[in-house]
Amino acid sequence: MTPQIQILLATYNGGNFLAQQLDSLFDQTVQDFEILARDDASSDDTLAVFAHYMERFPGRIRLLPVESRLGPALNFGTLLEHSRAPYIMFCDQDDLWHPDKIQRSLARMAQMEAQYGAGSPLLVFSDLEVVDYQMQPLAASFWKHLHMNPRSGSDLSRLLAQNIIAGCTMLLNRPLVDLSLPVPPTAFMHDAWIGLVCACIGRMDYLPETTVRYRQHQNNVWGAQPTWPPRLPRLLGRLLRRERREFIGQPMAAVLLERFDGRLNAGQRNALQVFANLHDQPGVVRRWQLVRYGFWQHGLIRNIGLLLEI
């Protein structure tokens, strides 16, 4: 029988961390889940760790075959294409889940289904606790650490400029999964794409508390570096070289327009069209469009840099 939840676990050379993450999954207060995993051609002992846990928990982990290396976005996208459960969660190899993460996420999803209907595309996300390589605390709140406001998570213009919805905190229902497939090759990351799809077509809500201990180390695909002061030299370097800021959401905006044009309202369509073509405009026009459509990031310093670089 299909479990209530499939946890999509994408790995690559994660042998140092994977056992701890799997332990945190099998310690969840809700156990009606299957782990659907795909390893992206690791060269370490990741597959050996999987083999050990598949023996300990028979029937709970399903490992997809690997034909080639895809990278993190398409690795998760492939897992999403193979998922069948009513609810989907994404899992990174090097984090730890709080024991009631699934329980709390499902409870909020139930509230949303009661409000909007089970057939609506729905997404729940949460905050994270940032920890170091040894799981020592670095920041109690990912959002506060990076000066992010989760209330703007459903704002399409803000999400185009900066994704704040971490994939490892997501719970999405089957209608949203079906709308999000396939994840386009132009997607920077799977979570950024799904967040934008939901902002266009569905409904989202957030848990104000942390549900994941997010491990920060040198091999993170997407880290939790604060805006100031580490990013100042990069900003100054780009200004001296007269480099324009490239938005990672621009290619996704073009795909959203193509895929969902008939389901978008006029405001969404205009925002996506302007954002997709932002860099075709003169500098003054780009800055005016940023202000007019609210393509703002989170934090004063980020937006000062944005106005200078764009």
Architecture overview:
The protein has 310 residues and is α/β, with parallel strands linked by helices. The protein folds into 2 domains: 5-215, Spore Coat Polysaccharide Biosynthesis Protein SpsA, Chain A, CATH 3.90.550.10; 232-309, no CATH class. It is 42% helix and 17% strand. It has helices at residues 18-26, 46-56, 72-82, 101-116, 142-145, 156-161, 174-180, 190-201, 232-241, 250-260, 266-276, 283-293, 300-309, and strands at 5-11, 33-39, 61-63, 87-92, 96-97, 122-131, 137-139, 171-173, 203-215. Strands 1, 2, 3, 4, 5, 6, 7, 8 and 9 form a 9-stranded mixed β-sheet that branches. α7 crosses α8, α8 crosses α10 and α10 (250-260) packs across α11 (266-276). The model is unreliable at 237-243 (pLDDT under 50).
How many β-strand stretches?
9
CATH class of the largest domain, please? Alpha Beta
Rg, rounded, reads: 20 Å
Largest sheet: 9 strands, mixed
Order of helices and strands: EHEHEHEEHEEHHEHHEHHHHH
